[in-house]
Amino acid sequence: MQLKHLLLIAIVGLTAACSSNKEVVDENLSEVELYQQAQTDLDNHSYTSATAKLKALESRYPFGRYADQAQLELIYANYKNAEPEAAKSAAERFIRLHPQHPNVDYAYYLKGLTSFDQDRGIVARFLPLDMTKRDPGAARDSYNEFAQLTSRYPNSRYAPDAKQRMIYLRNLLAAYEIHVAHYYITRQAYVAAANRGRYVVENFQETPAVGDGLAVMTEAYQHLHLDDLADTSLQTLKYNYPDHPSLKDGQFVPLKEEADDRSWLSKATLGLIEGNDAPPPPSESRANQELAKQYQDAKDNIPRELRPADEGGTADDAPADTDAPKPHRSWFSRLTFGLFD
């Protein structure tokens, strides 16, 4: 069975599961019974059922002894039930309602953990996807949320794990910037590539991507013919990262060579056709050259008696004689109805 069929079956199964009827919680259950049943569901990994009971507990007994604990465990149940938006919403609500709660650091931690795992869905777990090439929005959110936890509660029991995840996320975000810079180089957007490389060097120190950022800056500056900046970046790269893959025997090897702007016909004929023509400037196309040539040819064909005196002609400022013979029109002038005369 092909992979696309397996993915289709998984999507259909998830859709059917999500469209099932919500569990109805018995209205006669007491606060203690609701909490105990929710705990049992959590132990049995029945997170949907646990979520329903925790919501019922919070709504029926908002000032009970288990209300605060139910709000905390609702964050966890939503997180384990793969409902990241619901989990983050529950965490933000708990932080807003209980900013001085002794376990508020747990809400911060779960909020960051939810964003950390948000991009790691079913497909990402079973397919070898490069996380550094994906949208870094959730990773950036997770880094900021873990940063809030470690700055506000440095002695929290969750701070060490949050710091380790922040290191990973920082490396991930830096690698993503390098991927974007490489894309800009392939598209010949060298200014944008240099800016991305400089951003990595300035904002992601002590990450493995700093050397890549220097290599990107070197290559982009070389393409832009900014020799001083390119040499400075290259010397910094050689001094700090002598074993970088872009350095071969001490010489810099660019990711992309100078662009070959020859036409496909010139490349196919090894330059025999259009081989003697100099490549046009970036702002001048072949069509513009042809139009300019046709204009000059038409100008050269104007009879001498019709040219101005400053161009070697004999015409004066008097109105032209209507009986004078009309100049011969070129085929291009006739074809374009005189628009380019």
Automatic annotation (TrEMBL):
InterPro entries: BamD (IPR017689), BamD-like (IPR039565), TPR-like_helical_dom_sf (IPR011990). Residues 296-310 have a biased composition (Basic and acidic residues). It is found in: Cell outer membrane. The keyword Lipoprotein applies. Residues 272-329 are annotated as: Disordered. It comes from the Bacteria. Signal peptide: none annotated. Keywords: Cell outer membrane, Lipoprotein, Membrane, Palmitate, Signal. Residues 30-233 form the Outer membrane lipoprotein BamD-like domain. It is a lipid-anchor. Belongs to the BamD family. Part of the outer membrane protein assembly complex, which is involved in assembly and insertion of beta-barrel proteins into the outer membrane. Part of the Bam complex. This is Outer membrane protein assembly factor BamD. It comes from Pseudomonas quercus. The gene is bamD.
